[in-house]
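Page 47, continued from p. 46.
Same chain as before, 312 aa.
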Amino acid sequence: MSMKDRFLGKDFLTLMDFSPLEITYMLDVAQQLKYKRMMKEPHDYLAGRTIAMIFEKNSTRTRFSFQAGIAHLGAQSFYATPDTMQLARGEPIKDTARILDRYCDALVIRTYGQEIVDEYAKYMKNPVINALTDLVHPCQGLADMLTIREHKGKIKGLKLAYVGDPWNVCHSLMTCSSLLGMDCYIALPKGWAPNPNITKFAEEHASIGKTQMVVTDDLEEALKGADVVYANTFHSMGHKDIEQRKVAFAKYQINDETIKFAKPDSIFMHCLPGYRGEEMTDSVIEGPHSVVFDEGENRMHTEKAVLALTVA
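Result:
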């Protein structure tokens, strides 16, 4: 089976479903599509296709990047929220899924529970693409890896330090790091921890690749010698304990002093939206280390790669 054939019709639910070789191939395709976009070369590989988009959570980058990318690929997108669909009156997901499958060539869904995405995938023959759940954010993970590779020239052998909420982005970074040979240090206060199933997966694959997967409450340990400093909000969408989190994570801010623990040529990343003055200072996100807006752009290119590879 060719590499391209591995993807056709396949769901994109979590990066744990893909091998290091497959993830690297997706990054290569994304790089090619980015070049075509830059050179204004047509790449309407999905002309005549239709893509459904169900977004239960608010979105800026994910919605616009997908809709722009779908248009670049020549397809048509249809955006809806559950409250505007019959889901709001209790129609089962399995009924909605099978109907959408008859109309559209893929579904992009952004929701809360991973089990919701999994159920759509169970009842649809066409690809289901996870545009974020509480558990994982595979689209962000791909964009992050492309950004790191562009700015550092490689992924394998680097050290990434993640500081912030151990939520979906954290989980996808742990997954990517363990599969692609990058040391990953997660800094957060005692009492918080990443999902145990994700941690088990990441530790097992880091062991295979002889890399480090470390969760620590020591910010300096995490940042020391890091090639990539990745900040994220202390409180993600849906959290009720926002004030408690602000207090607990207050000492984990990335600022002009703490970023000095990392390598002088380290890059600073953040998936956005960010809270300037909380997890990072304005001087860092606007400073010489920041590649945040390159990272945001790469969401579109990697999502286009996923669509171009999976949609028949």
